[in-house]
Amino acid sequence: MSEDALYDIRDDRFRGLIAGSARLEELYTGCRWSEGPVWFSDLNCLIWSDIPNERMMRWAPDGNVSVFRSPSNYVNGNTRDRQGRLISCEHGGRRVTRTEFDGRITVLAESYNGKRLNSPNDVVVKSDGSIWFTDPSYGIMSDYEGHKAEPEQETRNVYRIDAPTGEIEAVVTDFIQPNGLAFSPDEKQLYIADSGSSNHEVPRHIRVFDVVDGKKLTNSRYFCSIDSGVPDGFRFDVSGNLWTSAADGVHCFAPDGTLLGKIKVPQTVSNIAFGGVKKNRLFITATQSLYSIYTTTNGAQYP
Where on this chain does a divalent metal cation bind (predicted)? Predict the structure, then answer.
């Protein structure tokens, strides 16, 4: 694939983030809807979700792909806490869980105000140990990615789980369908995608909030819109550029909201994660496949 076929450069700043000789690699195919990639630097592997097949997969740099967990309870988004434990959003269980080092699964959140969550979708962990996750209704809309059910929550919320107490609080309640989320590298802002246009005639955008005292979100404002498909999962590089999924590939936005460029992917992209030894390899989950491409920047992520 030529550079012209692979990249859509909208701003010259994008040229400083991509390697001209790098190529998009398909690492695995055979999924029904790939999601939730998370890099394990200590284990030198990537774990991701194949939601409809109710399994989680593991890829290693030697090319070996294996099943990490099956059944997975329709796990969608994944991340790691600062201790290196796997944090997952389960559509099937309608809960957020933590996989302990010995393999035990601890439930972190499954209800709010006495009612079941909708279907936790994506999750991030702040440096203070708090866990923030989105709760749209995708996993209960049909039996394809979970179990069909009526929502018990009146709204589709974003929640925060307090690290010391485990208390769950709704921090945003006005999204149509909150989806991907990520903190800016300095954790002063939280960015949240609204993918409501996949089911409603509404904007397909990412909003940004100021984080106050590590617990509250204020000053909601528009950051960017996706011109192809909807925003799903996204992550930041060390310079504060936002790399997000879209229908035609991966879109990269500067901190000022300018679209710098796109990496074209032949399947609809759901999510991304930086990984590899230097965190300069972008892993891309897209419909049936797992892809990767090297960049000239590094992901802002821990551990």
Answer: 35, 179, 232
Pairing of strands 34-40, 86-90: unpaired
Domain that holds residue 160: 7-294
Q: Is 100 labelled as part of a ligand binding site?
A: no
Q: Are the beta carbons of 250 and 268 closer than 8 angstroms?
A: no
- DSSP H helices, the chain, are 3-6
1 in any annotated domain: no
Domain annotation covers residue 302? no
The pLDDT, as a whole number, for residue 301 is: 82
Q: What's the number of CA atoms in the CB half-sphere (13 Å) around residue 205?
A: 14
CATH of the domain at 197: 2.120.10.30
Low-confidence residues in the chain, pLDDT < 50 = none
Selected catalytic residue, list 232, 237, 248, 256: 232
CA–CA separation, 95 and 108 (whole Å): 7
Residue 194 has φ and ψ, to the nearest 5°, of -115, 110
121 is in an annotated binding site: yes
Give the Cα separation of 132 and 17 in Å (integer).
Answer: 28
Q: Is the pTM of this model over 0.90?
A: yes
Per-residue pLDDT, 201: 63
Whether 76 maps to a domain, the answer reads yes
35 annotated to bind ligand: yes
DSSP string, 262-293: EEE-SS-EEEEEEESTTS-EEEEEETTEEEEE
Would residue 131 count as lying in a domain?
Answer: yes
User: Is 8 designated active site?
Assistant: no
- Count of domains forming the chain: 1
